[in-house]
Automatic annotation (TrEMBL), chains A, B:
It comes from Sinocyclocheilus grahami (Dianchi golden-line fish). The lineage of its organism: Eukaryota, Metazoa, Chordata, Craniata, Vertebrata. Residues 67-325 form the Glycoside hydrolase family 20 catalytic domain. There are 3 beta-hexosaminidase isozymes: isozyme A (hexosaminidase A) is a heterodimer composed of one subunit alpha and one subunit beta (chain A and B); isozyme B (hexosaminidase B) is a homodimer of two beta subunits (two chains A and B); isozyme S (hexosaminidase S) is a homodimer of two alpha subunits. The composition of the dimer (isozyme A versus isozyme S) has a significant effect on the substrate specificity of the alpha subunit active site. One of its GO terms (molecular function) is beta-N-acetylhexosaminidase activity. One of its GO terms (cellular component) is membrane. This is Beta-hexosaminidase subunit alpha. Gene3D superfamilies: Glycosidases. Hydrolyzes the non-reducing end N-acetyl-D-hexosamine and/or sulfated N-acetyl-D-hexosamine of glycoconjugates, such as the oligosaccharide moieties from proteins and neutral glycolipids, or from certain mucopolysaccharides. The isozyme S is as active as the isozyme A on the anionic bis-sulfated glycans, the chondroitin-6-sulfate trisaccharide (C6S-3), and the dermatan sulfate pentasaccharide, and the sulfated glycosphingolipid SM2. The isozyme B does not hydrolyze each of these substrates, however hydrolyzes efficiently neutral oligosaccharide.
Length: 368, 368
């Protein structure tokens, strides 16, 4: 079964963007990052976990076979360029995520031999696992993909993913096991994942791009290039993780407390104000390495029908926490009227931002 | 502080109604009831907890003073008639709820002396509590309101509310305490509430209408008119409550397990399939008294920006549970493709129904 998520209309997304003031929508495909020091925002469109594949104009089959439909359910290069330009005019950078070696089922549809064939006993089961890190063709493919990414995305960062890799399929495959032996990895598949990630981080560096990777890569493999930015998505222990990562000298993005696709009843935006990204055990130098946070709206349960009301104004709360003086914005009760006013402003501009609580907007009376 | 909820555009609601097949939207203002025996649906627009007040054309101040705005944030009689007619053409009945004695803060704005003045020590505090059940003017007002309701709503049922009455304000008021003494109620304010509810249920009967009330009224006061329909909203103990109410010979509506305004992450529509409204301790005769269920989408966090995606297709799951053979629809996994297909049908008709999970709709390829 393909793990496609939802495809978003780029045009819809663009039309729905509040102009100039706030960061742009995100979801499984579009994930937004917001830095507080510089007060600008970055979008992470995730083209790989999702249904939308970046379509290379001249090699379309290769990238579009995994899409729900090769004409209607892909993002073309010109779609992407429109997004980047629209964002650029508003001071927003676009950083794509191409998440491997896991979350790549849709890639496998267009790229034979990219994914690891899973085995049942001595025979292939017919299903596929993560990218196969044991064959040269994988690295050739990744290099050509990253070159194309560099061509399409001007930003100096690229997110390489690296999260949630299941080892069961690798373990079932005799070629992978042979490779493990040859490399002296024993039974430790985290070493195999690290080997793969190190290769694509090096490729990325050779293309003069800086890698961002999910925390899994650091958790498995502490010796990763110093300038790689690490991103935290696991909620339970993020303060300890911040401490460890910055101690190792890495810059860090914090996303765990802002997974706002995890909805709950009531005013859950209040949680955003309780987050203190620099409140962990470490030196002042370490604190400075926490360069920002990211609001995530993963798209398992979100598409164009509910993206805007689910995202706004809940993302605004995270934005205020990241962009404003923490001391002055800790109190969620005091934040409430500010957010309420801003939500009315979004409505007035045509963004379907959901209500924070009972009430109404003053502009509803305008002209009466 | 006024406890106004959100006002819905009647026009929007009407335009967004799926035609002919499914029950119509609901929320704090519009709550939908679905009966499974008769396979028709009923809407409960709740005009009293909410911001929208039924506007009497010739006595407008009286009803509109509690609205956010007397022109833009009210439902007029002709709005209501359009809703009723639109619903009628689709086999849907509209039953209004006028919830008292609690949830009436907005009524107090237009109707002096209707609400109980709360006291702080020996002096009025300036705030108001539930309807004042100790003065004649209250009953005169309720009678004229119910007469108007009868004129506007043709259905034979009317929902009188009766839930969540706080006694603190009544207790603080010296006139109420004197009345309690005179009536021999002691310190038991549930008796005072029962006295009030009994009066308005009798009024309703005299107007040839059948009352629906929330479970609170039964919980406080078991001797209520036999033909009154009781509705269950408290989630924890609804099976025991079903048992008690039907043992007392009352017809019952079950809403507790379908409070779908209480959102959570993931496929919470699955819960609807686990509900067995007639699975409680009682005779076959008692089971027959459970005449239906109601999906509730109370509007504290819902308005026109998010009503449709939050309601659909989640309400469809409850509809199937209530309208289809329970034995044949217990399995939520088997229900998934049915719901998914129906959700695509809603999308095709222009209803912004949110996704059930990752995926796409076949009609997105039509004509390609």
């Amino acid at each position: 079964r393909n793990v496609h998520k939802h495809v978003f209309s780029v045009l819809l997304a663009l039309c729905r963007t509040p102009k100039g003031t706030w960061p742009w929508g995100k979801n499984k495909n579009f994930v937004m990052e917001m830095r507080w020091h510089e007060k600008f925002s970055i979008i992470f469109p995730d083209f790989t976990k999702g249904s939308g594949l970046l379509m290379s104009e001249n090699k379309s089959n290769r990238y579009t076979s995994g899409a729900f439909h090769p004409f209607t359910h892909v993002y073309t290069q010109s779609d992407v360029m429109r997004v980047i330009e629209h964002a650029r005019m508003r001071g927003i950078r676009v950083i794509p995520e191409f998440d491997s070696p896991g979350h790549t089922q849709s890639w496998g549809k267009g790229q034979p031999n990219l994914l690891t064939p899973c085995y049942k006993g001595d025979v292939p089961s017919g299903s596929f696992g993560p990218v196969d890190p044991t064959v040269d063709t994988t690295y050739k493919f990744m290099e050509s993909l990253l070159k194309e990414v560099k061509f399409v995305f001007p930003d100096s960062y690229v997110h390489l993913g690296g999260d949630e890799v299941s080892f069961a399929c690798w373990q079932s495959n005799p070629n992978v096991r042979t490779f493990m032996e040859k490399m002296g990895f024993g039974k430790d598949f985290t070493k195999l994942e690290s080997f793969y990630m190190e290769s694509i981080m090096n490729m990325t560096a050779a293309l003069n791009r800086t890698s961002v990777v999910w925390q899994d890569v650091f958790d498995y493999h502490e010796r990763i290039p110093q300038d790689t930015v690490l991103e935290i998505w696991k909620g339970e222990t993020y303060q300890a993780e911040l401490s460890r990562m910055t101690k190792a000298g890495h810059r860090v993005l914090l996303s765990a407390p802002w997974y706002i696709n995890h909805i709950s009843y009531g005013q859950d935006w209040r949680n955003s104000y309780a987050v203190q990204p620099q409140n962990f055990s470490g030196t002042e130098e370490q604190k400075k390495l926490v360069i920002g946070g990211e609001v995530a709206m993963w798209g398992e349960y979100v598409d164009a029908t509910n993206l805007n009301p689910r995202l706004w104004p809940r993302a605004c709360a995270a934005a205020e926490r990241l962009w404003s003086d923490e001391e002055k914005t800790m109190n969620a009760d005091l934040a409430f009227p500010r957010l309420e006013k801003f939500r009315c402003e979004l409505l007035r501009r045509g963004i379907q931002a959901e209500p924070l609580f009972v009430g109404h907007c003053k502009h509803e009376y305008d002209g009466l």
